[in-house]
Amino acid sequence: MSDTLVDYDETLTRYEPVIGLETHVELGTASKMFCGCATTFGAEPNTQTCPVCLGLPGSLPVANAAAIEATIRIGLALGCRIASWCRFARKNYFYPDIPKGFQTSQYDEPLCTAGHLDVEVDGETYRVEIERVHLEEDTGKNLHVGGATGRIHGASHSLVDFNRAGIPLVEIVTRPIPGAGAKAPEVARAYVSELRDIIQTLGASDVRMEQGSLRCDVNTSLAPVGSLEWGTRTETKNVNSLRSVERAVRYEMRRQAAVLDAGGRVLQETRHFHEDTGSTSPGRSKEEATDYRYFPEPDLVPIAPDAEWVDELAAELPELPVARRARLQQEWGLSVTEMAWLVNAGALGLVDATVAAGATPADARKWWLGELARRANDAGAELAELAVTPRQVAELTRLVAEGTINDQLARQALDGVLAGEGDPAQVVEARGLAVLGESDELVAAVEAAIAGAPDVVAKVQGGKVQALGALVGAVMKATRGKADAATVKRMLEERVVGS
Amino acid sequence: MTAPVNTDLTQLDAAELGRRLAAGETGSVELTQAYLDRIAAQDDVLGAYLHVDAEAALARAGEVDAARAAGAELGPLAGLPVALKDVFVTEGVPTTSGSRILEGWRPPYDATVAARLKAAGTVLLGKTNMDEFAMGSSTENSAYRPTRNPWDPDRIPGGSSGGSSTAVAGGLAPWALGTDTGGSIRQPAAMTGLVGHKPTYGSVSRYGLIAFSSSLDQAGPMARTVLDAAVLHEAIGGHDPRDSTSIDAPVPALVRSTQEGARGELAGLRVGVVRELGGDGHTDGYDPGVLDRVRETVELLAGMGAEVREVSCPAFDLALPAYYLIAPSEASSNLARFEGMRFGLRVGDDGSHSLEEVMSLTREQGFGPEVKRRIVLGTYALSAGYYDAYYGQAQKVRTLITRDFTSAFDDVDVLVSPTSPTVAWPIGARVDDPLAMYAADLCTLPASLAGLPAISVPCGLSEGLPVGFQVMAPALADDRCYRVAAAVEAALDATRGSRFLDELTQRTAA
Questions:
Q1: Lowest mean pLDDT segment, chosen from A11-15, A300-304, B32-36, B487-491
Q2: Residue B466 DSSP SS3
Q3: Would A465 be classed as within a structural domain?
Q4: How many Cα atoms within 13 Å fall on the side-chain side of residue B240?
Q5: Is residue A2 included in any domain, yes or no?
Q6: Any A CB within 8 A of B352 CB
Q7: Domain that holds residue A384
Q8: Rounded distance, CA A352 to CA A171, Å?
């Protein structure tokens, strides 16, 4: 069944979107939330388990202090109020990936509340209010076997991997975000992107959406333009890339507009997002909402962070992305647009690291936004995924600045680095890429070029000095770009014009 | 002097057995064999045990004897047999919590208290019967079989730790561990003439104790004497980093307090008799004989120099309804993990049923009626729209009860009451009347809800059956319970000229 969709621009003529985001972040702690098991991604199924995270009878949880600290730091970075006393709660429901028959989470006493995050889209700032940041445990992972899709439908049986069960999970919930209008999909994306950068800066998680260490549920609703009431929202679950966040909002807006245009009612439901088509499909209806029967977790003592300790954590927060961007923009003398390019290309951190490794800001930007961006694009990869480090890029720019190589040779050296042949200097050495000085080899090439083109020599000597360029080109070609063009030109002038 | 015959060994208290082991007068194998023989002879009738592994017990006893023979430094408990309520998880040893739903499960780990007893060199005789998931006051709710009271096999042994109480009273174990959520150590101890203590909540690890009601469950000792209970308590007590609710404080010197109490050193002790627990205007449902024995015991304490006064704790009247909301609520959540997927029973997994159906069938067939009753009750009490009226309200009552205790302990050092309103009732008498069954916990619930230590010590007979005297103390003042209980025990033993359980020994020998 394919949905009827209204054209996006047309949607906005009649409706205003309200969005909201729930983001789950797996913390990068060495051990799980309530036991000592390791949290390594990709381990053999059910090898990182113990009686506690398997929910065996008799086992008891002990809260991971590092996870509590990381959650408080995230809350502080988002300007939240940190609770002086709060508790975990049990969220009761049956599912095979929930070993205890309940998830240990937080309910009406979250650790962090009332924060905000400002995000920028096309030069305009949108304030996203943060409702709460709380700490809970991840579930196990179901593997449905025998079906065509890997989904439970059509599967012959299902396996559960409890390695993920009990990994600390932070849930960050925004308040509804009205007023973004046509920019709603981009605001959603920018919010997730900024949140990801903050958490990465804090070192609280590796926030890798493709590995599920950052997962997004996107709420979308539409209301007729000018309406005082918001519409019924849908919750699109597990949207697992920045691009998908944007697409999911856009799709839901267009789908809901069609439902409303037809005089229908948007159902309050969870929906699944499909990466391949960019569409959503209905999951379970929320109208028959599960009663989770929350109550305070009696097996854990309350969390009561000491106010002085929280102040210390606040004082020790690293420079956050927004401050860093402002500082670098100023230090590097960039315009707002230039800065935006860098950020959008995902190159800010790389350029900063390259500058830190000794390159000039201009050189670093030139490489990352130019040659490296082109190669990443060709490979269909992110800049950060290229097999070259900021330090290596800085070395390339140094070799060019010193005159050891020129830009063309530098690109060849980069080929070598990307091919795993070592650092730029090693590649230059191994491939013999250094610029030729006034060596016998170069003298021979120059003389060969003169000897091989008597007609050009005649023209030059006849006063058409610009014809010398053809000879320069011949020498460069003969030396496969290793010569320095200015040197070649001088040597040719000495021999052709000067004699 | 001739060596005593094996059957005599089983009528001795653990302190004496420990002395004989240390002195080389007996060995752990001989001792263990004596208990195994008695279990073999009597447990078909008494039904104290759910699992006995004679071979493993004798092997373990042999190791201890060998170590002793080799001159190893052994602790005071080394070689002493012990029985554990089947609610404690034991590595490789079947553990059911009295339920069909865990039938066949061999846990991969030891409860902290089981590990501590193992490390102390004790010999595990077996796992004792209990009301399913500790829900009950008579052990009739065991999914496997009822346990009979050695004082009268037609009567219940109390519950839910009725397997442990019968084992110890009947000479099928020198001592045992039980658990107490609303009285499940104290009430069966009272019913069978034992000493049973519920420690301060958080002072004994709950790790590996299959949860019934997490905010109430406590493990504790059941023994033939106050001294034995104190020794066993000291062996299992103390902080456990695996239990977040475990208190990081040293175990009080319980053995020393017991010895002081046994010398009758009670001068200046202020004793409060709780009016709401069998006092004037609150005698409905209490056996007159129980009230008589308790009154006499209070007079005995006064005779030893204690200052006795009556204390009123009005909120105690609300303890029963509050308990029967809080405990089932927590139980409904704690028992959610028994869904047939990962351990124990699985029903209907023949390819013709969906996952949800298998879970439902497993729970339908795996849980008994009392467990289902409490799951339904607790699920209801936690439901959206009812939480405030039930669970929330019950928590407020809990606070009121705690306040009553706090203000009472401003004026007195300990509070006393009957342990149970009645003596052991005939098997089957209350099975069709859950409310009558629940009323058996009337006197033990307040200390449970407040998380306070409370002990039951025998104080005589009524209708030829044991009566328990309860002593409650402030949090972490477990030593006061032992001190007063030891004074009562010593005084009554002196009056009688014999130990309380000797009466049972003589009767069964007759």
A1: A11-15
A2: strand
A3: yes
A4: 25
A5: no
A6: no
A7: 321-431
A8: 30
Is B241 an interface residue toward A (CB < 8 Å)?
Answer: yes
What is the domain-level CATH number for residue A447?
Answer: 1.10.10
Query: What pTM, to 2 d.p., does this model score?
Result: 0.87
Edge to edge, what strands does the sheet with A89-92 contain?
Answer: A102-105, A89-92, A295-296
| Known catalytic residue at B184 | yes
How far from the centroid of its chain's Cα atoms is residue B143's Cα? 19
The one catalytic residue among B85, B127, B142, B165: B85
Are residues B168 and B149 in contact, defined by beta-carbon separation less than 8 angstroms?
Answer: no
Whole-number mean pLDDT of chain B?
Answer: 94
Block means of pLDDT (10 residues each) for chain A, 499 residues, are 81 91 93 92 89 95 95 96 95 90 94 94 89 95 76 76 94 92 91 92 87 90 87 88 90 91 87 86 68 94 94 93 88 84 82 88 87 85 82 85 80 83 81 72 81 83 81 82 77 75
Boundary of a domain, candidates A389, A411, A431 = A431
Q: How far is Cα A448 from Cα A467, in angstroms, rounded to an integer?
A: 17
CATH match of B6-316+403-509 with 3.90.1300.10: yes
Residues A390 and A484 in one domain: no
Q: Give me the catalytic one of B99, B137, B160, B161.
A: B160
Q: A413 and A482: one domain?
A: no
Q: Give the end of a domain, one of A252, A278, A312.
A: A312
3-state class (DSSP) for residue A236: strand
Structural domain total, chain A: 3
For B180-207, the pLDDT digits (tens) are 999 999 999 999 999 999 999 999 999 9
B160 catalytic residue (yes or no):
yes
Q: What is the pLDDT of residues B411-437, one digit of tens each?
A: 999 999 999 999 999 999 988 887 887
Q: In what order do the strands lie in the sheet with A269-274?
A: A81-82, A112-121, A124-137, A168-174, A15-26, A214-224, A234-239, A269-274, A279-285
Q: A212 and A147 in one domain?
A: yes
To probe the interface with A, which of B204, B333, B352, B383 has the most A CB atoms within 10 Å? B333
Q: If you measure CA to CA, which chain B residue comes closest to A159?
A: B341
Which two structure tokens, joined as six digits, stand for A427? 């590649």
pLDDT at B51: 97
B394 touches chain A (CB under 8 A): no
Using the Cβ of B119 and the Cβ atoms of chain A, whether some distance falls under 8 Å is answered with: no
Mean pLDDT of B357-371: 94
Residue among B184, B213, B329, B456 flagged as catalytic:
B184
Domain assignment of residue A373, yes or no = yes
Instruction: Looking at the structure, tell me whether residues A297 and A341 fall in a common domain.
Output: no
Q: Does B111 touch chain A (CB under 8 A)?
A: yes
Same domain, A357 and A473: no
Nearest by CB to A57, which of B210, B341, B355?
B210
Residues A39 and A156 in one domain: yes
Any domain includes A42: yes
Same domain as A304, residue A325: no
pLDDT in tens, B330-342: 999 999 999 888 8
Instruction: Look at A58 and B208 and tell me if their CB atoms are within 8 Å.
Output: yes
Q: What are the structural domain ranges in chain B?
A: 6-316+403-509
Most B CBs within 10 Å: which of A37, A49, A56, as the mutation test of the B interface? A56
Across the interface, of B105, B108, B244, the residue whose CB is closest to A63 is B244
> How many angstroms away from the CA of B226 is the closest CA of chain A?
28
Unique residue bearing structure tokens 């058409």? A464
